[in-house]
Amino acid sequence: MSLNLENAFGLNNHPHSTVSQTGFSLIEVLVTVVVTAFGLIGLAGLQMSSVNTTTKASANTHAQIAMQEIVGQLLANKDAAKAGSFNLLANTDGTLQTFTVNPDISNLDFSQKITYRWFNNLNNVIPGVRAGIECNATNMCAIRIQLSESIENMEQVVSIQL
């Protein structure tokens, strides 16, 4: 009986060996985990970018709808608009106004109530929004909506002729 030491100690490593490898090595598993982790980090970044873009698009859409609403009110009430009753003038430093709650709007006239409710609704859908409405006797009105800086530092302006 002859003793084959090469086979006994696993020293027979030539290509025609009858011993075959099964499963994965630790290195292969580690490389797979690292590649998968980088892929998931990339997907998380894309998801955050998608949420930010959707938030900005939603705010822009709400601002455009609000513009259309107030333009409709100005056109429906041209005389009051020409008289400046809808005006929501900029502050003395040129910045647009932010919404402030007025607990009693019973002392406001019809057009001021419309402006207050419009601005209140706008602030509910876009918190921190700034707005301005300026109509003059030359039959021109300018409506400005400035989105809050947390969403996007952007201003939308519409000018209409009454």
Q: What is the CA-based Rg, rounded?
A: 34 Å
Largest sheet: 4 strands, antiparallel
Oligomer classification: single chain
Assign an overall shape.
rod-shaped
Strand order, main sheet: write it out. 1-2-3-4
What is the string of helix and strand elements? HHHEHEEE
Q: Give start-end ranges of low-pLDDT stretches.
A: none
DSSP strand content: 5-15%
**How far is the first residue's CA from the last residue's CA?**
113 Å
Structural class by helix and strand composition: alpha+beta
How would you portray this structure in words?
Helix 2 (26-76) packs antiparallel against helix 4 (110-125). The chain has a domain at 56-161. The radius of gyration is 34 Å and the shape is rod-shaped. The N and C termini lie far apart (113 Å). A hairpin with an 8-residue loop joins strand 3 (140-146) and strand 4. 47% of the residues lie in helices and 14% in strands. It is α+β, with helices and mostly antiparallel strands and 162 residues long. The protein has 4 helices and 4 strands.
Strand and helix layout:
Blueprint lengths: L4 H4 L17 H51 L1 H5 L14 E2 L11 H16 L4 E6 L4 E7 L8 E7 L1
Antiparallel strand pairs: 1-2, 2-3, 3-4
Helix pairs in contact: 2-4
Q: Keywords for this structure?
A:
162 residues; alpha+beta; 4-stranded antiparallel beta sheet; rod-shaped
Please provide a brief summary of the model.
The chain is of the alpha+beta class and 162 residues long.
